[in-house]
Design brief:
The chain has a 4-stranded antiparallel β-sheet with strand order 2-5-7-8, with no helix packed on it. Helices cover 63% and strands 15% of the residues. The chain has 442 residues and is of the alpha+beta class. It folds into 2 domains: 309 residues, Outer membrane efflux proteins (OEP) (Up-down Bundle); 91 residues.
């Protein structure tokens, strides 16, 4: 019966059709795939691209601004102007008036204007802030990759861990089934009591429960991995890694710079630039401008004919040096400067705290990994000893030396030690990928 249950559960996890198949042989392969397909990482890359254009946009503000303009006006009806008649002839009574219509029906105007900031410290600081923002987004991308790597590693080792749990719980289920059949037969023969049968049945159900739980947890971990990697639901995902490859390999290597420290550093730089930019808001600005335009008047619509005489083009041009110095704006600049100073001091303290904390965190990571590996070796040794003890007790019980109760107790101990081993293995894997991530360059 147990073999039928196991076969159905295996069919449940593996017997479905898929549109495609994605296979990974190592955690590094999964990380590389996540770099190209994870939506959070891709969004962070887009932010880096946008900040690059924002930086170029800020630099373009330092260049001269040149614009060309042209105007065509059709005065359908010229405005009438009333003028006293004696303006032109003093002999005419002063209360007499004359009317005039000045101008021409068609007016053509064209011109070019060039303007450049000779002195504008605000633009200079804007370029600096834009450059630092680009660096901040690069650091944010690195930090995002680190976080996604951690999530991917969690699911990767969850799949391997549950595979180990499946193997052990499957083995345990077969043993539990064998014990139950043996105790049940002895009960029918009258050499075992009902309490022994209940305990054997309880152990069997407990072993099957662990097996079923591991089956579902493997599926959940696979689905979570698909979400992180952007793999369609209909595609299958296979992990070919082996826990022994990770457990037997020494995790040597120096820790790289933590992207979170780099992120805090650029946040401090931007805060400082914003504070300085708010201070130079009190400085004057000087702009240089040049304008050239020509215009022509005509009573006929003939913009493309040669213009002579009264219809000729009349040029006009000027250049201008403009200085502006804001003297009072209600104190808003002063208070903004104070706020920016506080923000800079706050970010500076956070950066220093992050640097100091990172050193201690790295030391704790190394200690936690060494501790978890040492505990794992011991719990695995205890589990194996417990299994050997169960086998010895079984042989002695079958020889009539010890009772069936001792065999049931030995098997229960083996179940407990196996659960302790899986818990230690889970803790060690968490410390393992934490170390591996700190050895990555982002």
């Amino acid at each position: 019966m147990l073999k039928k249950v196991l076969s159905i559960l295996l069919l449940f996890t593996g017997g479905y059709t898929s549109n495609g198949q994605v296979e990974f042989k190592s955690l590094e392969e999964v990380w590389q795939y996540a770099d190209a397909h994870n939506i959070t990482i891709r969004s962070a890359k887009y932010e880096v691209e946008k900040s690059l254009y924002s930086k170029r946009q800020s630099y373009s503000a330092l260049l001269p601004q040149v614009s060309a303009n042209g105007t065509y006006t059709n005065n359908i009806q010229l405005q009438t102007t009333v003028v006293p008649a004696n303006t032109f002839n003093p002999a005419i009574p002063s209360d007499s008036i004359r009317t005039f219509q000045f101008g021409r029906q068609f007016v053509y105007v064209g011109g070019v204007t060039a303007q450049m900031s000779v002195l504008n410290l605000q633009n200079i600081y804007n370029t600096r802030i834009a450059k630092e923002t680009e660096e901040l987004n690069n650091a944010s991308l690195a930090n995002t990759r680190k976080n996604i790597y951690q999530q991917v590693a969690t699911q990767y080792y969850s799949i391997l861990l549950m595979g180990e749990a499946l193997k052990l719980s499957g083995q345990m289920s077969l043993i539990a089934d064998s014990i139950y059949q043996s105790v049940n037969n002895k009960y029918k023969e009258g050499t075992a009591n009902a309490a022994n049968v209940d305990i054997a049945k309880l152990n069997l159900n407990r072993a099957q429960q662990n097996y079923i739980a591991a089956q579902y947890q493997v599926q959940i971990a696979r689905n979570n991995m698909k979400i992180l990697l952007g793999i369609p639901a209909g595609d299958s995902l296979h992990i070919r890694g082996n826990l022994d490859e990770h457990l037997l390999k020494e995790q040597e290597g120096t820790f790289k710079e933590d992207p979170a420290i780099r992120l805090a550093m650029y946040q401090t730089k931007i805060s400082l630039s914003q504070y300085r930019a708010s201070n130079i808001a009190f400085a004057p600005t000087i702009n240089l401008a040049y304008n050239y335009n020509i215009q022509r008047f005509d009573d006929k619509f003939e913009p493309f004919v040669e213009a002579k005489g009264a219809k000729a083009w009349f040029p006009a041009q000027y250049w201008m040096l403009q200085a502006s110095w804001p003297l009072f704006t209600g104190g808003s600049r002063y208070f903004q400067s104070k706020k920016n100073k506080i923000a800079w001091e706050q970010s500076k303290e956070q950066y220093e705290q992050a640097r100091n904390q990172s050193v201690l965190n790295d030391e704790n990571i190394r200690l936690s990994y060494q501790r978890s590996l040492a505990v794992l070796n011991k719990t695995k040794e205890v589990m194996n000893l417990s299994l050997d003890n169960y086998r010895h007790v079984t042989n002695r019980q079958q020889s009539g030396i010890v009772s069936i109760e001792e065999r049931l107790t030995a098997f229960k101990d083996y179940i407990d030690y196996q659960n302790q081993y899986l818990n230690s293995l889970s803790d060690m894997l968490v410390q393992l990928y934490t170390v591996k991530i700190r050895q990555q360059s982002f």
